Amino acid sequence: MMSTCEPWNEARGAEIIAEHDKLEGATLVILHAMQEAFGYVPEPAIPMIASALSLSRAEVHGVFTFYHDFRHEPAGRHVLKLCRAEACQAAGGDALAARAEARLGIALGNTTADSRVTLEPIYCLGLCATAPSAMLDGRVVGRLDEARLDALVAEAQR
Amino acid sequence: MKMRIFVPRDAGAIAVGADDVVAALEQAAEKRGLSIEIVRNGSRGLYWLEPMVEVATVKGRVAYGPVSQADIPSLFDAMASNGPHDLRLGLTDEIPWLKRQTRLTFARCGVIDPRSVGDYRRHDGYKGLERALTLTSDEILADVTSSGLRGRGGAGFPTGIKWKTVAQTQADRKYIVCNADEGDSGTFADRMIMEGDPFVVIEGMTIAGIAVGATKGYIYIRSEYPHAVAAMNAAIAAARRTGYLGERIVGSNHDFDLEVRVGAGAYVCGEETSLLESLEGRRGIVRAKPPLPAHKGLFGRPTVINNVLSFAAIPFILAGGAKAYADFGMGRSRGTMPIQLAGNIKHGGLFETAFGVTLGELIDDIGGGTFSGRPVRAVQVGGPLGAYFPRALFDTPFDYEAFAARDGLIGHGGIVVFDDRVDMAKQARFAMEFCAVESCGKCTPCRIGSTRGVETIDKIIRGERTSENLAVVEDLCNTMKFGSLCALGGFTPYPVMSALKHFREDFGPAPATLQAAE
């Protein structure tokens, strides 16, 4: 995913803001668009958003840090999210999460040293009847078992 | 004759290979020199059979499932000849699991092409709106009220009263907001209907706009649902193209338009006032009530905020079905509830039925018990804030009041099944941990109580002064339950206390503890 992202560029950032700043309550929309373009929300974008929306830097920083989705730095090349909520727990998700951590050598919430894989928990993908489930770079996968998980991890490491 | 084949675009079907099945079908058709039409429908909700492929025949649609890529060559020939196949399930409409449901809200889900207004209309779509356009605001409100519909998000507040309050409040503008922040584990009905029949949500919101005098609506969808976001956006674009959204909708004097907004991974934003804050572009901090959103909601204007399923129930009710809707159900729970069976369950999926069905029927009979084949030990009803029920309470009927009477809640209708390997102390700890991570931080009982709860349950798990610490947990739960601003802190005690009450043996020795604490 990271490979498709552009490096931070102030002019491009300004363009993204201009695309959305007339919307009612535009802050989240702009933060999402920034992350979509750059893979994370670059620090210099915060005062630019604040100025465009007539908000304080602190207000925009507050919004940025409130939500789990927004990244402070780029993720690994691939992002593997494992559902850790109750339905997936009931279907054996705990053991699979531990297996993924062992295979990648990192705990949930971290990126491998070679920046290839970011492993994250997610709380419900709404695939609770085909649990346990995961998402690799936006692609959903259900009915995970050890073999399917191993294949996903291997794919992410490629 | 060109074969018409249905393969769901539902995220649950895609997660188990529906896209691969489509690719294989196209390949098989090309190889045989046959022309086929593939419709990407929603899911019928029989998830253990997904990907479920259907083919149109003169007698109706015939289903096959669960289909994998490898099955396609033989399946293709069976479909073309209408011959036998190991995966053949017969006529879809005759599948018992589907046949015994009462699908009012989900009548079209899995049946139609979710991107086609024409298909929606051919299946009774927009009849509710057409009738609503001939009625006065009061008449629409009377229909909604008499249907007995209560908010399907979990709180169960009468929808008609909410709408009436907004209709009677004067303002320069009003809003309709659809809460599609379906964060409860074990629930997926909102996702399914948005992906499988998005126009029913649009129609319900449009009727709400006409009833209360609002011209703008927002659908706030969680970011974990990219497929639902895409489906709603495609449907909104199609509705605009055909005059069902925008200025002077279908030639009437009413304007109404919709916009999708995407959440950013905060569970608390499923709470309505937190959602409104988020929509306004702020931190999802819960607001104190009053003022109610119906008086001062989005941008301080009167706002109807309802769950996806509440809006989706409206078209049936307005198409002349108010009485029929109210005739289903029990007590004060009228109509049908799309119940979601999830977790360790053999037949997981969406089962829409009248209120009143018992928990035991849902788990053992309809759900077929566990997927693992082991005994059911606990079921959590109503998401992360819902109580854990043991088998002894399986006679509880699915009804708002009946669950409340047993210290539980039906919430958004999700049921997560656990087998006998579940550790209930761990589940209680998880409930507190989840609350600690997701707390918006505004009120102390939720913000601090949940963290203290995790620490205290950890001590119990380690066997430290079990009886004293159980008393602390109980005390914390009472503080959270009665002192929190919203349901996150207020309902987290449900899973914790129910685990303690019904599964005391998982919390270490000293069974006399709870009495000693009283």
Helix fraction bin of chain B: 40-55%
Total individual domains of chain B: 4
In percent terms, what proportion of residues of chain B is strand? 15-25%
CATH superfamily of the largest domain in chain A: Glutaredoxin
Report the major sheet of chain A. 5 strands, mixed
Report the largest inter-chain contact: A-B, 40 and 62 residues
Question: What is the assigned CATH homologous superfamily of the largest domain in chain B?
Answer: NADH-ubiquinone oxidoreductase 51kDa subunit
Low-confidence stretches of chain B: none
Span between N and C termini of chain B?
A: 75 Å
Overall helicity of chain A: 40-55%
Low-pLDDT stretches of chain A are: none
Radius of gyration of chain B: 24 Å
Q: CATH class of the largest domain in chain B, please?
A: Alpha Beta
Order of helices and strands of chain A: HHHHEHHEEEEH
Please describe the biggest sheet of chain B, giving its number of strands, its sense, and whether it closes into a barrel. 5 strands, mixed
**Count of DSSP strands of chain A:** 5
